[in-house]
Amino acid sequence: MEWFTASEYWLSRLVFQRALAGLYLVAFLTAALQFRALIGTRGMLPVPRYVERVPFRRAPSLFHLHYSDRFFALCAWAGCAVSVALLAGLDSRLPLWGGMLLWLVPWALYLSIVNVGQTWYAFGWESLLLEVGFLAVFLGNDEVAPPVVVLFLLRWILFRVEFGAGLIKMRGDACWRKLTCLYHHHETQPMPGPLSWFFHHLPKPLHRAEAAANHVTQLIVPFLLFTPQPIATAAAALMIATQLWLVLSGNFSWLNWITIVLALSAVAFPAEPPDTAGAPLWYVVVVLAVSALLLCLGYQPARNMLSRRQVMNRSFDPLHLVNTYGAFGSVSRIRYEVVVEGTADEAPRADSDWREYEFRGKPGDPRRWPRQFAPYHLRLDWLMWFAALSPSYAGPWFGALVERLLEDDRDTLRLLRRSPFPPGAPPRYVRARLFRYRYTSWRELRETGACWERTFVREYLPPTRLAGASGTR
After folding, report:
1. How far is CA 61 from CA 29, 57, 234, in A?
2. Are 138 and 286 in contact (CB under 8 A)?
3. pTM of the predicted protein model
4. DSSP code at position 469
5. Is 134 within 8 Å of 154 (Cβ atoms)?
6. How far, CA to CA in Å, does 184 sit from each of 10, 201, 331, 334, 441?
7. Among 36, 131, 196, 319, fewest CB within 10 Å belongs to which?
8. What stretches in the chain show pLDDT beneath 50?
9. How many Å from the N-terminal Cα to the C-terminal Cα in the chain?
């Protein structure tokens, strides 16, 4: 069945699969190291409380059948182990059906995590990893050449990621149409990277060129993915270059990296394909049936892209088989940050010894230079950015965060870069204040060594004690 496969993409498949396995590893590692404080039994948004009110049919997950922190850790670390096995190429050493089942394991495990992750997992790259991971199950191994229809569906996902993001920008903030959004974006993005300060200080004409290039890459180039080679490879290479530029300019978890992985599946590498057997009939039937299902389900995200009321980062089914994507339909002009502080004083006065908690990735101390964390995802730091935009974003979990700090909770403190209080001696009061942050100029950087300048705006949360203690707010 030569019409069914494309042997010239065997190396593309190999690179795609190994890179995807690496992203799975990062995702499971992130879950294993952070879940206790976020969604564990004593987490800010506990899984047991969630599965009590959300039925299995709305959020299919192993954790509807059983939940304990130990069981969650087992699933997360099992996902890490399977990802390492896939990264080492174990799927190619198994029969075709065995390789497919091996790829199904991380998808099912990560689906179980995302579907109970609540707001901590409400990011587009979670659904994107699941949608791409599900297709990877049917891409085959060394026994058969890559199926044409699966390669097409991978390009269809890439098209929706890029074109959808381009449309949401043109329909959203006027600064994208004026080519001025990047005057602000590098300063106000959720989590700046070590080079973001320098990107912000690029000349404004170059910022306009960046915005224009973004429009070309997201609104025109995606159509070239469906043209003959080598044009499709050139289009994919341009997308990869754009994503690497974004990797350098900020910390966007694995969003850029999985887009790069998708683009690699469209690259026709100049390599002689190995001899492979013809695809067995059962495999052809399964792949065509699944592909037909996904094409039918794809009507909804396609309709969403063409709608004037286009939405971003939403799944159209509980298995996350088809989703809509997009980012930065609007760009903030001013950066706000929530600064969390504690004091051991008996009474919380303005002149008390307030000490600041330092987060790993989000801006805090103006003299501390941002670090590179992506593709690792600092979930609490990202949600703190949303909390600064509006307290309603933080309503379900911010109070629990403050409570855990007052309790000196070890799992929560592990999410932070530094606690200003020694172990076993938590603060009596915790408060939060809102500051406006801006990048310093070249002159200010030389004179002060600080990359940020911050100005107090208002109180975000008044001094708070644990319930039952005297002076409780």
Report:
1. 19, 9, 40
2. yes
3. 0.95
4. S
5. no
6. 42, 10, 7, 8, 14
7. 319
8. 471-473
9. 72
